[in-house]
Amino acid sequence: MWIRESISGHSRRAFLQRAGGGLGGIALSALVARDAQATPHFRPRAKRVIQIFCPGGMSQVDTFDYKPGLEKRAGQPFDPSGKLQFFASKPGKCQPSYWPFRQYGESGRWVSDLFPKLATCVDDMAFVYSMRSKTALHGPGCFMMNTGQARPGFPSMGSWVTYGLGSESENLPAFVVLPDPRGLPPGGIINWGAGFLPAAHQAVTFDINAKQPIADLFPPEGTQADDRAGLDFLQRLNRMHRVERSGNSELDARIQAYEMAARLQLSAPEVTDLRGESEATRKLYDIDHPETGPFGRQCLLARRLAERGVRFVQIYCGAENTTAKKIRPNWDSHEDVVRDHGYWGAVLDTGASALLKDLKSRGLLDDTLVICTTEFGRQPAAQKSGGRDHNGGAFTAWMAGGGIRPGIGYGATDELGFEAVENVMYSYELHATALHLLGLDHERLSWYHNGLEQRLAGLEGRGVIEDLLA
Question: Does residue 377 fall inside a structural domain?
Fold first, then answer.
């Protein structure tokens, strides 16, 4: 087990948070992350992670998992016995993909017409067709993919990574989340919480569409004098504390880390200001488009954060699940797959393809691990007039860069895409593989909690999937 230093003195923490208008908490996060920085267990292939999360349940049979058998049985009863019960419906008739599939690249990967731009990147991607979840509920499904547990309260993958590796940046947080502009995902901020790890390892959320990218980044107008007085008082306390402990070099390091709050007031606005990007880059991400532009800006910001040393960036493509009036705010397509996946497909296709191409052109893809996943898949049978129900038994994830073997497909579902049947993977194996690429042994990265050595990859999985490694 790795044991990290914790920060005592809750009154000092509370005072710092009040005095800095919220910046003290961010500074403290940076302090602990850098104090805790450690070397990897072995030579890493990746230095950082960018994860794209598509909440709502993306349909595998309409995107990446081509099923000719489903086409042959189109319109036939999916369950002639009448014994099956899906999450919220009885199985309807077999419904093949609403979009044609084609083969792309030297690898010949099958991709539906929903993703014409991502299809040009398949030779850099590895597809896992055999993902499963232990739940078909949105909130628990998101928790499982983010934390390895379907219950809330466990540390997210980004928290585990920053706990293990610390931060590469002195001016930006180690773990940043970019929520969808429409709102938080199912389960809310627990998806990127630190759980039982020190609170310093939870993410800092950036809102690229807001005037302030970080909430409370700047104190309210008219309070600067009060803040200055409070910070001056805090500095006097630090000096008094240092006089009594002249041999403790860590105190000087802490005082320097508190100054990170002031640097953030410069670095955060700079990194979120996209005006300096070239016209070609802006067009690549389509950042001015009214529909695909917001996600394009998130992906472009993720690249900017990654090249400035942020260890883990998570982007959400979709928000909380609600009933649709026009288009559902995420991938949850119970009523109309063509409408909902058609909208979100264009959003993901534009931003994710631009991110992969941009990272590759800048030489960043080699040591940046990109992961794209959803919490579960959808059923091969029709629901209502044109929807699909939840399916925890099968979905597809893809990975790229950072030591991933490009252009491959791993695992398989049955002939209809109903259930993963070959080389089945849960979040456990995905997490173990990602940690391995970052130079971390998933069995050694642990935290003692409630009488157990807790781990991101848990105790149930098969461990690192060697077939996915380059």
Answer: yes
CATH number at residue 440: 3.40.720.10
pLDDT in tens, 249-290: 455 545 554 555 566 676 777 898 999 999 999 999 999 999
| Residue 339: inside a domain | yes
Q: How far apart are CA 470 and CA 467, in angstroms?
A: 8
Distances (CA, A) of 417 to 73, 100, 129, 372, 379: 12, 16, 9, 19, 8
CA distance 186 to 402: 29
d(CA 99, CA 111): 10
Identify any residues that bridge with 49 across adjacent strands, giving them in sequence order: 312, 369
Please indicate, yes or no, if residue 37 is contained in any of the structural domains: no
Task: State residue 226's pLDDT score.
Answer: 58
Helices 23-35, 260-272: axis angle to 10 degrees equals: 100
Q: Determine contact, residues 343/331, Cβ cutoff 8 Å.
A: no
Structural domain includes residue 257? no
Total number of domains constituting the chain? 1
> In which element (H, E) is residue 204 found?
strand 204-205
Q: Is 11 exposed, middle or buried (0-12, 13-18, 19+ CB in 10 A)?
A: exposed
Distance CA 332, CA 62 (A): 13
pTM of the model: 0.86
Task: List pLDDT tens digits, range 356-397.
Answer: 999 999 999 999 999 999 999 999 999 988 999 999 999 999
Residues of the domain holding 151? 45-216+285-468
Residues 52-63: tens digit of each pLDDT: 999 999 999 999
Which pLDDT band, with edges at 50, 70 and 90, does 210 fall under?
Answer: low
